[in-house]
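Annual report, structural modelling task.

Input specification for the zinc ion complex:
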Amino acid sequence: MSSELPSYDNYFIRHSQLPDIGESGQHLLNNSFAVIFGAGALGLPVLQSLLMSGIGRILLIDPDVVDLSNLHRQFVYSAEDVGTFKVDCASTYARSFPHSKVATLAADVTDNLEKVLQRTDIVFECTDSHKCKQAVNDACKKLDIPAVFGGLYQSHGTVHVVGQKGGCYRCIAQSGNAADCADAGVFAPFSMLVGTMQANVGLRHLLNKNDAPASGTQLMIDGASMNIRKLHVPMNKQCQVCGDAQILSLENEKVTDATLRTGVIVLKKYTDSRKDSLTELKEPEDVLLWTPETDVETYIVACATGSRANTAAAILQNKGFENVQTMSLAALNLKL
Ligand SMILES: [Zn+2]
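The model returned the following structure:
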């Protein structure tokens, strides 16, 4: 067998034959540098898609080691890898793709992101860490690097493009925690689907395709019904990055146990002396049934982890509500 590198142009000829990619688009991919945060359920399908698309340089960042509970969906790893750094296994896997150079970091780099992300063309945020998502959001906004955020919560998935226009990650997730597969569970094919969609959106964005979801767009994918909604996320005036930050501290004890576990609450904070009011909803989509009010200072949407609240908040923002904040119940100081 020849050790010669296969011809790049022949390797990707089925790509470059596409009218909206062509040789110029394929060479753009080859000259691009992408950074992936997270080598898990979303990060691995993103990595695979970038490798198979001929991205020239990739940096994969994840401080974790492989756990037995990862194997059912994180297809790169096997039982022999348990206890090994994920990025080391992923790096070995990536050697089969001769036209991509993959570097790795097995470390938490959230305190040093601006240095790490220098000369990056696009970022994929694929972790379930709220801290990491916030840090990536802030650095990418500051450095003007497009970023595609992926999220999973049971049968709900999100793909959010953050860039110059539209709302950023903090605009719809002021506080609270991202959903964690360790607590919520995850369906293997759905995680692969959302990760692959994340890569597809990011690569179309990288290719400057006008029909790609623009920055400020959030796709909301229902893994059960397979309904996909595309929402515009407006900039939030109270976002710490896009607007003037204002942290609210509220107390309320009226929420039932059932809502804490499965539902969403929406708090209307009034500008006048009227008592703030609270509404409990069974599903995030129930906010579609709401009747708008004109003198509400801020809508605060909360749920146990912040994930379903993000869904409800995005729907509200898409309906034209400007002052919407998302919080976890813990952040609202609710007594559990
Ligand atoms: Zn923002």
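Residues 93 and 112 are 27 Å apart (CA to CA).
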